[in-house]
Amino acid sequence: MRALLAVLDDAVAAQLRADAAVASCGEPGPVSGQAARDCGDASSAFLHLRARLRVLPLTDPDLVQAQAYAGRLLDYDQWMVHQSVNLAFTAHPDARTEAARLQLNGLGRPADDLRRLRDTLKSEEGAP
Predict the structure, then answer these.
(1) Which of 83, 87, 108, 112 has the maximal Cβ count within 10 Å?
(2) pLDDT for residue 126
(3) Taking Cα atoms as reference points, which of 120, 84, 90 lies closest to residue 105?
(4) Full-model pTM
């Protein structure tokens, strides 16, 4: 469980940076190159976290289920970062794309779900 919690702690930390990067893609006006770099860093971080998560040698069925759920949430985070960059730096801007881009304000509920999963596992680890 400790190894899983270590990955989840790192994932929650990565989400904070990614959340800000995604939100910066949705700010009015031109999107900065720094936003693209931040999204690239976030995407890379999620890819590495997903790889770390995948190789954990878990056998407890509840932990295996938590591992799979965390993987799906990390996949969503990476997808959201990718989509944010696509909207912010589209080659063919139009009113619909711009309207969608302006709706970006972070990673959303799945990020909260990953934090809750981490917090639940931490509380279970500390329980007698």
Answers:
(1) 87
(2) 74
(3) 84
(4) 0.91
Integer Cα distance of 112 and 119 in angstroms: 10
Distance of CA 1 to the CA centre of its chain: 21
26-81: pLDDT as tens digits:
999 999 999 999 999 999 999 999 999 999 999 999 999 999 999 999 999 999 99
Burial class (CB in 10 A: 0-12, 13-18, 19+), 39: buried
Spatial distance between the Cα atoms of 39 and 116, rounded to a whole number of angstroms = 23
Spatial neighbors of 63 by CB under 8 A, at least 6 apart, are 1, 4
Which residues neighbour 15 within 8 Å (Cβ) at sequence distance 6 or greater? 77, 107, 111, 114, 115
**Angle at which helices 2-25 and 109-126 cross, to 10°:** 160
Helix/strand/coil for 1: coil
- Kindly state the tokens that stand for 15: 């989400």
> What is the rounded distance in angstroms from the CA atom of residue 17 to the CA atom of residue 107?
10
